[in-house]
Amino acid sequence: MRVPLFQLDAFTSRRFSGNPAAVMPLEAFPPEDVMQAVAAENNLSETAFVVREGVDYRLRWFTPAVEVPLCGHGTLASAAVVMEKLEPGRAHVTFHTASGPLAVRRCGAGYAMDFPARRTRPVTAPSALILALGAAPREVRADDSGYLAIFQGAAAVRSLAPDLTAIARLDRSGVIVTAPGDGEYDVVSRYFTPARGIPEDPVTGSAHCALAPYWSERLGRSVLRAYQASLRGGELICRVRGERVELEGTCVFFLEGHAEI
After folding, report:
1. 180 and 101, same structural domain?
2. pLDDT tens-place string over residues 182-219
3. Per the residue annotation, which of 46, 235, 246, 248 is the catalytic one?
4. I need a surface site. Which of 48, 116, 131, 260 has the fewest CB within 10 A?
C-alpha cells in the first residue's frame, strides 16, 4: 500500500530545530504491528497516523517502541498537514484520540491545541530518581505516567546529564525536569522517556500539560512562555483554562513523499 508521508519540525519556526514528527494520512488504520513497524522505520520520536472520520479525523501516535495515549508535537504536526496540505485554508480541526477529542485552531502563524491538564501531586523523592538524575531536585511531584522534578534554576536543568539506563528502570515511564525560566521564558524544562524508546524528547507537548498547571499556580499567571532545552530546542505558549491547557506552537515542513507499507 502506497500512502502519503510528511515530516515536520514542530514547536519551532526554524527548520532542524523543534521536534520532528512523521504524519501519515490513511484511508483506514492498518494492524497495530504494521503501524509500530512503520514508526520504528521512521525512527522519529513519534509517527502520527491520521484517518478522516466525517468532518473530523481519528489520530494515533507511535514512538519507535510503543503506542502512546497523547502526543503534543504529533498533534500539532497533524493539524498542520490537515490545514495546509489536505484541506488548505481550513481554520480548525478536531482529532478523536485515546485522550478524547483534541481541538486545534489556527492562531496567527501557528496553531493552538486544546489538551487535558495533568495534575501532579507531591511525593517523596525516590532515591533511584535522584541517582538517575545525578542531582537532587528541590521538589518532586508525580502522576500515574511520570515524575516532575523541580530545580532551583534553569542552569541546573540545562546542565543535567542523567543516567538514561537508570531512568528507564524507574517505576514511571518518564521524567520531566524543570525550573523557572531565564531570559524571555517563564519556564524551562527537559523530558526523558527512554522506556518508551525516546532517550530525550526534543519538545514535548504532553509534558506541558503537567508543567503549565504547576507553574501557573507558582507564578500566579495563566499564560506562560515555555522553552524545552533539548539539543534541538523548542518553544510554546501555554494557557491554563481550568482542567484544560491550550498549547500554541508553529511547524515547519521538511519532507513530503510517499511510503510503501
Report:
1. no
2. 989 999 999 999 999 999 999 999 999 999 999 999 99
3. 46
4. 260
Rg (CA), the chain: 18
pLDDT of residue 140: 98
* pLDDT tens-digit series, residues 140-194: 999 998 999 999 999 999 999 999 999 999 999 999 999 999 989 999 999 999 9
Residues facing 112 on adjacent strands: 105, 248
Residues 108 and 6 in one domain: yes
Give the total number of structural domains in the chain.
2
CA atoms within 13 A on the CB side of 32: 8
Domain that holds residue 15: 2-114+247-260
Active site residue 46: yes
Closest CA to 21 of 235, 203, 245, 147: 203
